[in-house]
Amino acid sequence: MAKIKITQIKSVIDRNERQKRTIQALGLKRINHSVEVEATPAIIGMVRKVNHLVAIEAI
C-alpha cells in the first residue's frame, strides 16, 4: 500500500474537540510535525476531515 507524509501546518487552538482528536489520532503533536503512514481508507478519511490543518504529500 502507498505511504503518505502528513505535516501539521496550522494550530488546533480554537478548533472543535473532534478536530483536535483527529489530529492526535493521526500522530501529530505540534505545528511542522510530520508522520509517515499507510494510505488506508480510514487514514484518508481522517485527513479529509482536517485537510485545512495539514499538508499531504505522497511518498
Tags for this model:
alpha+beta, Ribosomal Protein L30, Chain: A, 31% helix, 3 strands, 59 residues, 27% strand
Structure report:
The protein has 59 residues and is an alpha+beta fold. A three-stranded antiparallel beta sheet has the order 2-1-3, with no helix packed on it. Helices cover 31% and strands 27% of the residues. It is globular, with a radius of gyration of 11 Å. The longest helix has 9 residues, at 17-25. The chain has a single domain (3-58), classed as Ribosomal Protein L30, Chain: A (2-Layer Sandwich). The chain is built from two helices and three strands; from the N terminus they run βαβαβ. One of its GO terms (biological process) is translation. Part of the 50S ribosomal subunit. It holds the Pfam family Ribosomal_L30. One of its GO terms (molecular function) is structural constituent of ribosome. Belongs to the universal ribosomal protein uL30 family.
